[in-house]
């Protein structure tokens, strides 16, 4: 028996029979071949930042950290191919040295690029989709042991599934990203009132390159955060106390360093449903959970896309994330807010806590069956379909 694996927050723990770190695609193909012959499961894992059980298995856990991390440039200067296991922080530095940058990032940068895109990790900004929208191509070892390249030029019909796949199609070894030239951002934050924030929210979102806010249940106040190219700050300044200002390269300015660890539930809702949804979340938290909620609630925006399992598929999206310190109970709180999210056509973040199954999820994604068809084609023997993944994708 192997040793216990645990995720970043500590809320997910399991002991796979084996943990392996293949160095190349030949080793991965051998693992897939063995799994098919012995009817065992493989699950790829990145940094373990996710708090959902996507990676949980009793069989073989496959780490991406041993794969080559070198970056390859393309004739198109906006494209670069990188190793799937490279952490976002390390990737940002490598891109910066090459004069490139991702056009947006999430709030943390400890995830691997493959793990972040496989779960729909996102930042904020009306013009920016999730990190998966920056994926221009994927190379993977499928459930049949085939090494498959997916891009607009090769197997293009698979790209809407492969850009956000939950690790259900194969083990990704390399990814091609569509990038931007290096740019610097000025980060600013303010403490403000919830009333002012909600009244001016649309204007703040529209005028800033990136904007989000935290709501603090204990004080019923907010922290507003904006990011803009130098010299492009809007005239509207939040009413409240200015807290911080810093300027730097995008990959160092967008993510935040996290010392304290937490668990999280986040749902993506249609932007037009945000105000009634948030009002009910706020009411329930103040009336039922205020004494036990030690963390804030984060509100961000994500542009619509055409990726089949993206929670921003075909709609402009606002996300609401409820955080709880990992040393405190969260289940009753998360169950209560999840009921509200579901009333407003919410789609859960794949990498965070939620209770939905395939029966629920299939109704939320118009291309659900298209993704299932691709999954069965690339993994006909269910090498990657663990019981947890089956509950999400197959069980009805």
UniProtKB/TrEMBL annotation:
Q: Which UniProt keywords apply?
A: Oxidoreductase
Q: Which residues form the FAD-binding PCMH-type domain?
A: 12-182
InterPro entries, sorted:
ALO_C, FAD-bd_PCMH, FAD-bd_PCMH-like_sf, FAD-bd_PCMH_sub1, FAD-bd_PCMH_sub2, FAD_lactone_oxidase-like, Oxid_FAD_bind_N, Vanillyl_alc_oxidase_C-sub2
Question: Please, which domain of life does this record's source organism belong to?
Answer: Bacteria
Start and end residues of each stretch annotated as Disordered: 234-253
- What Pfam families would the database entry show? ALO (PF04030), FAD_binding_4 (PF01565)
Record bears the keyword GTP-binding: no
**Gene3D superfamilies per record:** 3.30.465.10, 3.30.70.2520, Uridine Diphospho-n-acetylenolpyruvylglucosamine Reductase, domain 2, Vanillyl-alcohol Oxidase, Chain A, domain 4
PANTHER family reported in the protein's UniProt record: D-ARABINONO-1,4-LACTONE OXIDASE, L-GULONOLACTONE OXIDASE
Full protein name = D-arabinono-1,4-lactone oxidase
Species name for this entry?
Plantactinospora solaniradicis
């Amino acid at each position: 028996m192997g040793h216990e694996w645990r995720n970043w927050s500590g809320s997910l723990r399991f002991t796979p029979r084996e943990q392996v770190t293949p160095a190349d695609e030949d080793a991965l193909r051998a693992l897939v071949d063995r799994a098919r012959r012995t009817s065992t499961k493989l699950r790829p894992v990145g940094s373990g930042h996710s708090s959902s059980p996507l990676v949980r298995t009793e069989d073989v856990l496959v780490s991406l950290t041993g794969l080559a991390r070198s970056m390859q440039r393309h004739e198109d200067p906006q494209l670069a191919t990188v190793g799937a296991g490279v952490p976002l922080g390390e990737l940002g530095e490598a891109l910066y040295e090459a004069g490139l940058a991702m056009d947006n990032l999430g709030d943390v940068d400890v995830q691997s690029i493959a793990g972040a895109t496989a779960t729909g990790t996102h930042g904020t900004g009306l013009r920016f989709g999730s990190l998966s929208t920056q994926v221009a191509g994927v190379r993977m070892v499928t459930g049949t042991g085939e090494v498959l390249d997916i891009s607009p030029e090769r197997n293009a019909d698979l790209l809407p599934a492969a850009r956000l796949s939950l690790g259900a199609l194969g083990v990704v070894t390399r990814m091609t990203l569509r990038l931007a030239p290096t740019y610097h951002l000025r980060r600013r934050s303010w403490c403000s009132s919830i009333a002012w924030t909600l009244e001016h929210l649309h204007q703040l979102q529209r005028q800033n390159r990136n904007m989000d806010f935290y709501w603090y249940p204990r004080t019923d106040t907010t922290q507003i955060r904006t990011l803009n190219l130098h010299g492009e700050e809007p005239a509207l300044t939040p009413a409240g106390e200015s807290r911080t200002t810093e300027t730097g390269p995008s990959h160092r300015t967008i993510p935040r360093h996290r010392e304290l660890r937490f668990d999280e539930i986040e749902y993506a809702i249609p932007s037009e449903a945000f105000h009634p949804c948030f009002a009910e979340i706020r009411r329930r938290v103040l009336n039922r959970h205020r004494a036990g909620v030690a963390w804030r609630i984060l509100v961000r925006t994500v542009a619509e896309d055409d990726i089949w399992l993206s929670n921003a598929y075909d709609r402009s999206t606002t996300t609401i994330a409820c955080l709880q310190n990992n040393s405190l109970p969260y289940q009753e709180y998360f169950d209560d807010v999840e009921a509200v999210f579901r009333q407003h056509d919410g789609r859960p973040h794949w990498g965070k806590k939620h209770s939905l199954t395939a029966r629920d999820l299939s109704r939320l994604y118009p291309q659900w069956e298209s993704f299932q068809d691709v999954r069965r084609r690339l993994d006909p023997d269910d090498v990657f379909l663990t019981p947890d993944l089956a509950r999400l994708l197959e069980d009805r």
